[in-house]
Amino acid sequence: MQVDVWSPPPVLLTVDLVILTLREGRLCVLLVERGEDPFRGMLALPGGFLNHAGEEILDAAHRELSEETALLAGWVHLEQLATYGDAGRDPRGRVVSVAHLAIAPGLPEPVAGTDAMDAAWAPAEAVLSGEVELAFDHRRIVTDGIERARTKLEFSALATAFCGELFTIAELQQVYEAVWGTELDTRNFYRKIQAVKGFIIADGSGRRTTGGRPARLYRAGPKTVLFPPLIRPVPSTTEEDMGEEGE
């Protein structure tokens, strides 16, 4: 009696990074120009295959982050985003990507990695709209990463990861506006921020002058879960809605 011998299918594993920062008040994502096939010359997320069979996935993500931004783990928020493994996502074969979301304040101009011809920051809205075309399924990964950030801003202290060690409430509001893509009422935002005890704490080192009167400086507090949450406003889509808001 013949017995079929099963063997596992060959599967390759990569890590991809959705690296977000604010530049001149705009949410930006880091993209690289691919220097190798497939999709040579197209823009894509930074990332790559595991270095060796014994490399841990998180270690690979930290390695790619360091190679693309020269930042150490202690200076950046890094979390696993999702796994992408559609059979046809990569023409080289069955390639599964474990994507990660990375956030840090004021990241510098990037330097292209070993398998990239160039690297640059792109406005997030240009990627989400499809104005900037990406290789593989990377637009889907960027969309998921930005939506993760938008949602976590409501319920967690993730917004402080976009700020430096010290920041003003106006700078924190700029983070919410850039990531959510909507303007917020300053007084209402200040009231909501102050209602979440432990989210941010005042720093006694001084104040920052930003064109008007000096603003108090804050740092991230001990609380990582926001209660009450800062619910993302629903954008108005009709003139009637806009009229009601103005009343």
From TrEMBL:
CDD domains given in the database record: NUDIX_NadM_like
Signal peptide: none
SUPFAM superfamilies in alphabetical order: Nudix (SSF55811), Winged helix' DNA-binding domain (SSF46785)
Origin: domain of life: Bacteria
Pfam (any one): WHD_NrtR
Domain Nudix hydrolase: from-to ranges: 12-148
InterPro entries listed in its UniProt record: NUDIX_hydrolase-like_dom_sf, NUDIX_hydrolase_dom, WH-like_DNA-bd_sf, WH_DNA-bd_sf, WHD_NrtR
PANTHER family noted in UniProt: ADP-RIBOSE PYROPHOSPHATASE, SLR1690 PROTEIN
Protein name: NUDIX domain-containing protein
Originating species: Streptomyces prunicolor
Biological classification of the source: Bacteria, Bacillati, Actinomycetota, Actinomycetes, Kitasatosporales
